[in-house]
Design goal:
alpha/beta, Nucleotidyltransferase, domain 5, globular
């Protein structure tokens, strides 16, 4: 049986198609939609972003039909759940594409991310801090391979920060400090809880962490990561060098950095500011990448018969 999972993120709409008999990935792609552009700070999906989202869903629907998928599940996260016209987007998506969208809250999103990460690498018995930087929100989970001890979703995604601070390009030091101060105040509960649980690793799930790992591999090894890799361990000195470059470079230089995924170039600096602060405040010395996140977590639930999610009409 073929299962399709659509993750309607704030920056990208992602599609994963897998064959349940073999767990093989049949198709995996993402489309840049930037739902937060021009409106997320005012709790609205702007008209242009709204239309981009519907067009991306229609493209994913065509791929799903071409691959003869048996069951399709779609999930909306921060931009759609937190905007005044998010429910209108859900209604139009169903009407125009036949895709029924499960709108999930931040706690559900964090749990699904955990189930995805757990499939990508051996988390072990020790507690890790999982970090998923989205466009609208960033999720943090304290967990080991067996269970979640704490999870939270914060409205500090990269798109939301870009809309709030509208930084110059390249971003100057005083604007970096303004973002850091805002994050420091927003993440107090995280830092207090991390101090209690004392995680050993920071695990970044997909998104910006994929791009940072790819850039680090190109810069320091001269080639990209294998296409089928599911995890990567950062050399922190190499990460620091890449992050410094991203914060000093303008858009064109970021875009042309080997390993950069083009759709990440405009917001990667916001992701680096978040990661830098979390590393500094937590004192963590090991950072890993999980290429799996929400989609793979949903797939796990479905194949383990732990899912009550609504299927789409396709």
């Amino acid at each position: 049986m073929r299962i399709a999972i659509i993750d309607l993120g704030t920056n990208t709409f992602n599609l994963l198609i897998r064959e349940t008999e073999t767990n093989a990935v049949i198709f995996n792609t993402k489309i840049s939609v930037k739902l937060g552009e021009g409106g997320i700070d005012n709790q609205i999906i702007a008209p242009a972003a709204f239309e981009r989202g519907l067009l991306a869903l229609a493209e994913h629907r065509d791929s799903i039909k071409n691959y003869q998928v048996d069951k399709t599940y779609a999930f909306a996260t921060s931009a759609i759940r937190s905007t005044s016209n998010g429910s209108q987007f859900v209604e139009e998506a169903k009407e125009k594409t036949g895709i029924i969208i499960n709108v999930i809250d931040g706690q559900q999103e964090a749990e699904l991310i955990y189930f995805g990460v757990r499939q990508a690498l051996d988390m072990g018995e020790n507690i890790s801090l999982i970090m998923d930087i989205g466009g609208g929100s960033t999720e943090f989970i304290l967990a080991n391979k067996n269970e979640i001890f704490w999870k939270e979703s914060y409205l500090i995604g990269s798109s939301r920060l870009m809309e709030k601070f509208r930084p110059d390009d390249p971003i100057p030091l005083h604007q970096i400090e303004a973002v850091e101060n805002y994050l420091e105040a927003s993440l107090q509960s995280l830092f207090e809880t991390a101090e209690q649980y004392k995680p050993l690793w920071l695990i970044g799930s997909s998104g910006s962490f994929d791009t940072l790992a790819s850039m680090a591999s190109w810069k320091f090894r001269g080639f990209d990561l294998p296409a089928d890799h599911t995890s990567y361990t950062f050399d922190l000195n190499q990460y620091i060098a890449i992050a410094r470059l991203m914060l000093q470079a303008d858009f064109e230089k970021r875009l042309n950095t080997p390993g950069m995924i083009p759709m990440r170039a405009d917001m990667i600096n916001m992701a680096c500011i978040q990661i830098n602060l979390v590393l500094k405040r937590s004192g963590l010395k090991v950072m890993k990448l999980s290429t799996y996140a929400l989609k793979e977590g949903v797939y796990f639930q479905i194949t383990q018969n732990q899912s009550t999610w609504q299927e789409s009409l396709l």
